[in-house]
Recover the amino acids of this structure.
């Protein structure tokens, strides 16, 4: 009698797609456990903002088209004439290791939108607890008081990754932060939470008026300089040693009265 052998066949690998939801008129893209975006960028046509999620798995959503948000495989199309209270976009990391790159064309929420006056950008890859990586290779521009939040264990901002907000705050958080990108703001507070390595000269402010202050919570290293329009009423503060590992080039503090606090 011919013997039979039971074999277990592996199930076909399935890729869980990103999920698109709305949270108080913010369009939220939640990544799957190991999903990556190789080129996150936006394009604008009139009141329509298209968020391109190049490299991601096929996006999915339960949102009805009546909300003003239409989702395809690698795009999220936001009609702000329908979603009139649109407040910005958010990318949230999954339970595993994610990598997101803001591409060369960047994210721009200032052009052509007819919706709410404050539209922000939040890219937060800290939720999964893995070795996530966020790379900003293009400019990020918010509308009005729209804030910018960049958060990832490893976070790199390139020379072209300038951040522009009219009056919004800017928060950059990571276990290892490297930056060569400027922050352009009038009254928003700029905070770097975590050790910073300068990979190029950076400027914070708008070149003429007082910013809302600049706060480095940890060490700052790198053979480059920092230029800022912080002042005694909105100071630049340091919560760690500056130049302890790699000497920082003497920076230019453009305002006449600048309070610098350092914990040495």
């Amino acid at each position: 009698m011919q013997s039979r052998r039971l074999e277990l066949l592996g199930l076909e690998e399935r890729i869980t797609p990103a999920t698109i939801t709305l949270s108080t008129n913010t369009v939220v893209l939640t990544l799957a456990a190991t999903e990556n975006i190789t080129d996150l960028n936006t394009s604008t046509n009139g009141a329509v903002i298209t968020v391109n999620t190049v490299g991601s798995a096929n996006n999915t959503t339960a949102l009805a088209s009546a909300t003003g948000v239409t989702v395809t495989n690698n795009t999220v199309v936001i009609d702000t004439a329908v979603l009139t209270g649109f407040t910005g976009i958010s990318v949230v990391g999954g339970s595993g290791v994610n990598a997101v790159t803001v591409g060369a064309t960047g994210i721009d929420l200032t052009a052509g939108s007819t919706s709410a006056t404050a539209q922000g950008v939040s890219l937060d890859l800290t939720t999964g607890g893995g070795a996530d990586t966020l790379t900003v290779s293009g400019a990020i521009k918010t509308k009005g008081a729209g804030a910018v939040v960049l958060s990832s264990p490893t976070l790199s901002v390139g020379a072209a990754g300038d951040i522009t907000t009219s009056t919004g705050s800017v928060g950059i958080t990571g276990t290892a932060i490297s930056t060569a990108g400027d922050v352009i703001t009038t009254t928003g507070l700029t905070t770097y939470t975590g050790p910073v390595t300068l990979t190029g000269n950076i400027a914070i402010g708008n070149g003429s008026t007082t910013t809302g202050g600049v706060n480095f919570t940890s060490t700052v290293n790198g053979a480059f300089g920092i230029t800022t329009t912080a002042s005694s009423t909105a100071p630049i503060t340091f919560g760690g040693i500056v130049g302890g590992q790699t000497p920082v080039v003497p920076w230019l503090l453009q305002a006449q009265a600048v309070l610098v606090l350092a914990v040495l």
